[in-house]
Amino acid sequence: MRESELLAKIAERSASLTRAFPHVAVGPGDDCAVVRIGNTDCLLTVDQVIEGSHFRKATPLDLIARKAIARSISDIAAMAGTPVCALATGALPKGFEQSKADELFDCMKRWAEHWACPLVGGDIASLPQTSDPMTLTVTVIGSTHPARGPVLRSGAQAGDGIYVTGKLGGSFDAASGLGKHLTFEPRLAEARWLADTLGARLHSMMDISDGLGRDASRMADASKVRFEIQPELIPRNTPDWRRAASDGEDHELLFAASGEVAHAIASSGLPITRIGSVMAGSGCFIIDGATAIDVRDLGWEHT
Ligand SMILES: [Mg+2]
Questions:
Q1: What is the pTM of this model?
Q2: How far is the CA of 69 from the centre of ligand 1 (A)?
Q3: Which CATH architecture has domain 31-143?
Q4: Rounded to whole angstroms, how far apart are CA atoms 138 and 71?
Q5: How far is the CA of 208 from the centre of ligand 1 (A)?
Q6: From ligand 1's centre to the CA of 146, what distance in Å?
Q7: At what angle do helices 61-78 and 188-198 cross, to 10 degrees?
Q8: How far, in Å, is the centroid of ligand 1 from the Cα of 75?
Q9: Which residues contact 264 (CB under 8 A, 6 or more apart)?
Q10: Boundaries of CATH 3.30.1330.10 in the chain?
Q11: What is the CATH number assigned to the segment(s) 153-297?
């Protein structure tokens, strides 16, 4: 099944879930679920990193631990939330040294605390074979922004500007396996500033994990609007905008905010760039001269 079909199914299920269980405000399909516990909305997200897919056997344990934690923290940032605590599990290949397992969990604990998100529980299990890939799973619980509330993917409106933080593309160095995909800084501070400063005028936000093209398409679809992106405006680590828009694991923020806040954002001094505009309609297009290129197929498709 293509990931796009899978996501449509998830959205369908999410809608019936929120009908059946009113304490679930947002189910699967956004960066985090939003669940009401008592009188409080909580953010919940879980993500995993797998040897061979997200890191290599030779990747230093500290960087593996950092990535495992940072990916889930980035999802909390994408909702303009604040991390509260984390839970982690590790499935380690048979024969994995105890001292290395301890080091790995110490590193995860340190990175979790670095983002003020203490590791409050977890589990380690041994995989059946020495050749099985190490897998780490991290759940993060977060609080929503006290004034703005959770910023969803579905709020972009015609007339909004489309923005990204940082620079896109080139996060994975194919020769070494290293790069920004292991060392990115989750955009908690930028997300907090946006929610503090723009409030309800911050309409929609997500983190870019599967490439700008694919993720911007998801936001346009979720918001039922059309995105038009100017390729020359995409801030990038690679000369080619097609690569910048299709490379994965940027973990930058993509957001849409009401047109009148463009000046406030531009003068914030934060690494934020306007890359396009939201229109009535559907789809996500890069406007290359006179041609509107459908960017749906620029990002990663996990098959
Ligand atoms: Mg995400």
A1: 0.94
A2: 13
A3: 2-Layer Sandwich (3.30)
A4: 9
A5: 6
A6: 21
A7: 10
A8: 5
A9: 197, 198
A10: 31-143
A11: 3.90.650.10
